[in-house]
Design brief:
51% helix, alpha+beta, 11 strands, 7-stranded mixed sheet, Hydrophobic Seed Protein, binds adenosine-5'-triphosphate, Methane Monooxygenase Hydroxylase, Chain G, domain 1, two-stranded antiparallel ribbon, Beta Polymerase, domain 2, binds magnesium ion
């Protein structure tokens, strides 16, 4: 099969051609070739070559060693950067995650053999001709996720591949080929050898997939979930999760929904669950706040001060999440509250510490922080206009200064 070389591939052609002109083989490989065959937008193109790292470096003016021990050199050209990796094989794996050694080879097929799934094991040359040694094109047509080679061996080499398989099922709406699925069922426990950070990346991509029902189904029927942090008894939660009415848009929504379905309500408990999953602090913060909003909205409408404190962005997102869990939302009320907020943040408050210290004729202290917080609340609840004099008068009347 041949596809037209366009966009990112076209930009990267000079890299492939420079390698070829020097007598080496060079191809586009990995996710970008899969995506172009699926008619999807292509973002990062990866290049594989028979040239060894030192040979790659000699051919290009600007390169950066990004993972030279794995054979990866970054080539900088026309303001773009391209990862160029030497064809390689991986020798025995003793810890279910990392090869004991990497060997550079001159054969494309050897390189493609070590890749995880048939749909990720294509190569495409400078003319758009697809090399397909493992019937990946057929699997793409049939909507099948299949390991390259013997699934059992491949998952023993690197157990993360099992998560990748269900992640692609969820992103593409494909189903797992029987032997591949069976090998996951048998080897799911090997996931325990994999760093949580790597599992997390695949879990989030799965949860954000357009076909979460397919992905989640495979994730729980294969028992993979039992070897993920804090998920031993998550079956019911995951079933509910898999039935959400439309795809999830953001990582923090994934976590907020998961926490909700798991019945975790307390913010501290939620945060420690997410820390266990090695979620970033910012995302922990946002997800637990979303969770608080969801529970609050179970039985009460919001007021303007809460919209301000939680930020309009999270309030709006929480209203959206209520629909995912089939609870009544009130987006028009949320919009009304958001649009009529007198200020969006404390920076817009028309009063500052200096003015208040002058008014009270006192130095700063605890009183000052409290006065500003009260002014902020009063402005938001529209007890007073956001004007310096009005705020000062209101604070004085209420004995805050
Ligand atoms: P995405 O679109 O999410 O980036 P991708 O397939 O490009 O998906 P990457 O993690 O960027 O995924 O990996 C690039 C390529 O490297 C894959 O297409 C696959 O050929 C190979 N690969 C990645 N991870 C593994 C793995 N654990 N085992 C074997 N091959 C892998
Ligand atoms: Mg990629």
């Amino acid at each position: 099969m041949k596809v037209p070389i366009k966009g990112e591939f076209k930009d990267a052609l000079p890299v492939i051609e420079t390698l070829q002109d020097a007598g080496f083989e060079a191809y586009f490989v990995g996710g970008s070739v899969r995506d172009v065959l699926l008619g999807k937008e292509v973002n990062d193109v990866d290049i594989a070559t028979s040239a060894f790292p030192e040979e790659i470096k000699r051919l290009f003016k600007k390169t950066v060693d990004v993972g030279i021990e794995h054979g990866t050199v970054m080539v900088l050209m026309d303001g773009e950067s391209y990862e160029v990796t030497t064809f390689r094989t991986e020798s025995t794996y003793q810890d279910y995650r990392r090869p004991d050694s990497v060997t550079f080879v001159r054969s494309l097929k050897e390189d493609l053999k070590r890749r995880d799934l048939t749909i990720n094991a294509f190569a495409m040359d400078n003319e758009g001709l697809i090399q397909d040694f493992f019937d990946g094109e057929k699997d793409l047509r049939d909507h099948v996720i299949r390991a390259v080679g013997k699934p059992e061996e491949r998952f023993n080499e690197d157990a993360l591949r099992m998560m990748r398989a269900v992640r692609f099922a969820s992103q593409l709406g494909f189903h797992l080929e029987a032997d591949t699925y069976y090998a996951i069922v048998v080897n799911a426990h090997l996931l325990e050898n994999i760093a949580v950070e790597r599992i997390q990346v695949e879990f989030v991509k799965m949860a954000l997939g357009d076909y979460i029902l397919q992905g989640m189904e495979a994730f729980f029927t294969s028992n993979l979930f039992k070897f993920c942090p804090g998920m031993k008894h998550a079956e019911v939660a995951l079933r509910r999760f898999s039935l959400i009415p439309r795809p999830i848009k953001k990582e923090r929504h994934v976590w907020a929904l998961l926490l909700y379905f798991l019945g975790i309500r307390d913010s501290k408990e939620a945060a420690s669950f997410l820390r266990y999953w090695k979620v970033s602090n910012q995302t922990i913060n946002d997800s637990t706040r979303l969770l608080e909003l969801i529970y609050y909205r179970h039985h009460r409408p919001l007021n303007q001060y809460q919209v301000y404190l939680y930020t309009p962005e999270l309030v709006w997102e929480a209203e959206d999440l209520l629909e995912y869990i089939q609870l009544p939302s009130d987006k028009s009320h949320a919009i009304k509250l958001i649009q009529s907020l007198p200020i969006q943040s404390r920076k817009e408050l028309n009063i500052d510490g200096k003015r208040l210290m002058e008014e009270k004729d006192a130095r700063g202290g605890k009183w000052l922080g409290e006065a500003i917080a009260m002014a902020e609340k009063a402005v938001i609840l529209k007890a007073v206009k956001n004007e310096s004099d009005s705020i000062v008068n209101w604070l004085r009347k209420n004995k805050y200064i």
